[in-house]
Design goal:
Helix 4 packs parallel to helix 6, helix 5 packs across helix 6 and helix 6 packs parallel to helix 7. With 287 residues, the protein is of the alpha/beta class. The longest helix is centred in the C-terminal third of the chain and has 18 residues. Helix 7 links the parallel strand 7 and strand 8. It has a domain of 125 residues: P-loop containing nucleotide triphosphate hydrolases (Rossmann fold), CATH 3.40.50. It has ten helices and ten strands. Bound molecules: adenosine-5'-triphosphate and magnesium ion (MG). Magnesium ion (MG) binds next to helix 1. It is found in: Cell inner membrane. Belongs to the ABC transporter superfamily. One of its GO terms (molecular function) is ATP hydrolysis activity.
Length: 287
């Protein structure tokens, strides 16, 4: 297996999460947290250009954690330091500014793309909220470049979501997430809603983007073979907590926690998927 790019040593963490908690439901008397502790004392750091995967069974809290990082849901307590600054304490106006650095791609590209907007409009949308990022006159060229980066032909700018395959729609969602030049992409099951036949296009684009743009990813997935391919480190989440974190190969070849062992045992064929992908230097982006 080809080695993933390793983060530069001693670089300060781009993102550092400390003791994050999020519970749902009203706490009972004498309790600080509600009955469902979806994120339970989670801490980790993410370096520039690094890909951290979060794996764990359904309901373990992966999406809630992702949404808490972006303040789409409000944390109960903890810190989310982006370049040393706690984004959980920012005002809404300050958060709007910061949000351009952290973007999210959701599982279902149908739900996340407005059906009556064409791709040009969809990709431009972030610039309506952050007009100072890019001058109007430079936007058409940037749209073409973004389409090229997700391996879609330029004429796709005129298409609507229902004229595209799921894989193409998801690549449009990725292009839109890139419009503000974020440093971190949070990918919540980005290919699990797609046919296996188109998953590879999206994964290939994600790999290429990471190498070209040095993006950091938080990659949430049930697919351990993909995790092994993409991630440089893995966090195993169980009932809201990170029960094991480590370099990808260590987690896969020498899991310590019982739950990690169970997870790996239920995922046969882990070694086969990587043969379907090529590293960026071998890839030709089609237009
Ligand atoms: N808005 C909410 N209100 C109440 N409970 C919630 C809410 N969102 C999530 N939960 C609960 O929090 C826990 C974690 O859910 P979450 O969606 O984060 O899990 P997940 O790991 O993303 O699961 P999956 O793999 O199925 O996507 C679950 O018990 C869920 O029922
Ligand atoms: Mg989820």
């Amino acid at each position: 297996m080809t080695k993933r790019p390793q983060p530069v040593e001693n670089s300060p963490p781009l993102l550092e999460v400390r003791k994050l908690y999020k519970s749902f439901g009203t706490p009972r008397r004498g309790e600080k947290l509600g009955p469902i502790i979806a994120v339970n004392d989670v801490s980790f750091s993410l370096a520039s250009g690094e890909c951290m995967a979060i794996v764990g069974e359904s309901g373990s809290g992966k999406s809630t954690l992702a949404r808490t990082l972006l303040r789409l849901v409000t944390a109960d307590s903890g810190e989310v330091l982006y370049r040393g600054k706690d984004i959980l304490t920012l005002s809404n106006a300050e958060m709007r500014v910061q949000r351009r650095n952290l973007q999210m791609v959701f599982q279902d590209p149908y739900a996340s793309l407005h059906p009556r907007q064409n791709v040009r409009r969809l990709i431009s949308e972030p610039w309506y909220i952050h007009p100072d990022v890019l001058e109007r006159s430079n936007r058409p060229a940037r749209i073409s470049q973004l389409l090229e980066q997700v391996n879609l032909p330029e004429h796709f700018a005129d298409l609507y979501p229902n004229q595209m395959s799921g894989g193409q729609r998801q690549r449009v969602a990725i292009a839109r997430a890139l419009a503000l030049e974020p440093e971190i992409l949070i990918l919540d099951e980005p290919v699990s809603a797609l046919d296996v036949s188109v998953q590879a296009q999206v994964i290939q684009v994600l790999m290429t983007l990471q190498e070209r743009l040095g993006l950091a990813y938080i990659f949430i997935s049930h697919d351990l073979a993909l995790v092994r391919l993409l991630a440089s480190k893995v966090a195993v989440m169980y009932r809201g907590a990170f029960v094991e974190t480590g370099p990808t190969e260590q987690i896969f070849s020498n899991p310590k926690h019982e739950y990690t062992k169970t997870l790996l045992a239920s995922s046969p064929g882990l070694n086969q998927v990587s043969a379907n992908y090529k590293r960026v230097e071998q890839v030709t982006l089609r237009n």
